[in-house]
């Protein structure tokens, strides 16, 4: 697939690319469906419960049933809401979430773009989602929604900065912003970036968590404080789209972490003699394994941690994460210049 | 210059963190609270007025429904007042059964508090762990009196049912298990940095303020005032047991959290001793069929799960009270909320409200 991107486009490659894009859409939707199931199961096990068991074998049809229910519900728009904005908000939040998936290379052959600014595209597009959330909070004409939207905007803007700065270390080392190039650099280096860039990795994990609005950074929808935050007034299909956005970002962010820090499709421990046979396993399997581990981490965190409070959240971003990520960048640059 | 406006936010009566139908009219400046006005009464059933038309045994089920998380203590609160007024002598075994059930109920109530409080501050799992243990207590009560929440177990003069065979052994086993669980809760929650940052120094007040607001229970003891009625004015047979009153000087949410968990431990100690000492014998004193306390007044108070639980009865010698008044600790404790809330953010506000530990059935009476 990647090869096609470097050839002149023919009708044949166009059709194939379009088909693969549809396939990716289906995969992402399938991921969302089953990550919700997986989340409920994992959290259930952590909490000494079973999770869904009733709908379909092992409860496997629970999420499809839930989604169906949401789709069939009456579409409610509050009377005093700003109608055009209320309708626009979920779309604005949702479209970028799918777009960012395009920049992620799943293996050296499977990927939809091969651009030198992949990371920038990701960060820039995901920024648009904040607009959708803020708009949703504003247009609902509900005070809880407004507070949720406000928190969300403040949080996502604050955490985007350490998010980007923590990746700069990786970019400085690899010398490219091309995500495939970053993985290839890790292959040459022999170790994944999680080792030399451990500080960057940790900051990225925390900031990514805040970007995704997931517990313990789920302040924008803090149930016990703001009822449901920015989507309090949303129901049915529009609510489903907000939820979908959240989980698609989980897909994208987990993929990005795998690519940036965990060596993408590379097999592990290649510097250990005798483990070279691991290369026989297809790269996509390695990618998926790492991906699932990262996804599990989000779910685990959600079942374990209490929520941050607002002031601390901001303090943490600006006074801890930002200086540390800057230091990490400077240190990386110095070491790179000396070696 | 930007013109800013304050935001009036109606928190409740349907809101996830008001633990029932409490309504709070909150004025916000950004996310900072400038004014809070609790509006109570959504669950008011007029228990005290209704009780004037009921004889004393008939009032017992109504007390179940006040603090429905600690119904045993409410039952006892009423029968204790009537017994004091009548000057009844209670059989030993009944007193022991009362102490065991009351302390178990205190543990159950604190477990609900622990679970829901952590839910308030955003941790999901401890709630399930706490309810798992509470379930054991509810099952024990179910076996004893056939009800899980509204027990109506106590009677004037004793208790309704004797412990079934093997019940006391089960209680003893539970005590052992619960001890480990308290340690587990501490490892699970107490050391968490996020948790500490939300607890330490939040909702702080001193002993003077606490006394001025008439706070009792953990809300008072967290400021260092050693006032536990079980020790201060021992009732029932509490003077026979060896236990401590956990105290703290901090006066913040963290102190209240630690004290409640410590109280679970102390209650378990009492239960353990009571189970070991309990004698055989009758469970009901000889009381007349129709209870007619002599003319007069009585005020008794006991240490409820949430504070000083009092009962004031005015009797005119008939089989029903002339006037009955319950001192409901949740209602009194809630009064400090508007004072504490000023200047807090919504996140802290939820933590402070939760730490007061109110039950709306009791607040509204």
TrEMBL record, chain B:
Localization terms from the record: Cell membrane
Subcellular location, principal: membrane
EC number, UniProt record: 7.1.1.-
Stretches assigned to the NADH-quinone oxidoreductase subunit D domain: 120-291
Ribonucleoprotein among keywords: no
SUPFAM superfamilies: HydB/Nqo4-like
GO CC annotations on file: plasma membrane
GO MF annotation, one: NADH dehydrogenase (quinone) (non-electrogenic) activity
Keyword hit for Metal-binding: no
Catalytic activity as recorded in UniProt: a quinone + NADH + 5 H(+)(in) = a quinol + NAD(+) + 4 H(+)(out)
HAMAP family cross-referenced by the UniProt entry: NDH1_NuoD
PANTHER family: NADH DEHYDROGENASE [UBIQUINONE] IRON-SULFUR PROTEIN 2, MITOCHONDRIAL (PTHR11993:SF10), NADH-UBIQUINONE OXIDOREDUCTASE 49 KDA SUBUNIT (PTHR11993)
Subunit field text: NDH-1 is composed of 14 different subunits. Subunits NuoB, C, D, E, F, and G constitute the peripheral sector of the complex.
Listed name of the protein: NADH-quinone oxidoreductase subunit D
Organism: Bacillus thermozeamaize
